[in-house]
Amino acid sequence: MKKLLAFMFLTLLVTGCGDEPGCDGPPASNHSPVETIDLDDNETRNRIIAEAIDEDKLNAKGDCCDEILHAPGQQNPYTGWVKSTYDDGKIFYLAQYKDGKENGSWFQWYRNGKKMEETSFKDGKVLQILVWKPDGIKCPETNVVNGSGLTVSYDQGGKEYLRSSYMNGEWVND
Question: What percentage of the chain has pLDDT greater than the value 90?
Fold first, then answer.
């Protein structure tokens, strides 16, 4: 659970985007996301929210750098959707897990309901990150593909506060 909380904190710190208007985001790469899921479709999003387990109910086993999540009372690692909400009940993130690790899509939203981030994972490693500003404009500077690149972080109000790097699917402490 410590790893999950640390990842969430780091994700908040490292998500965001630059301030050049009109860019459609990172260039195309040979990598395709693990699975395409349209969470802009309310029916799909509501179904996933309903089936997702709250992150607070999961148990982490292993050391802090290689934790595996388990559902309560389960011996096998958790596979399925995980959710987290803001204090007001709005969705903060939805994430896919397989065998206790991030695997598939990770979606985050700002408090205002606008999309913040879409991240693709495989076996707990970052493959690709797309981010948006709080006003809904896709990020022109964040460019993480094939597990490596840069993210530019913005707070809920749109002010830049951090730039971070990923290498080989892992966050690099700049």
Answer: 64
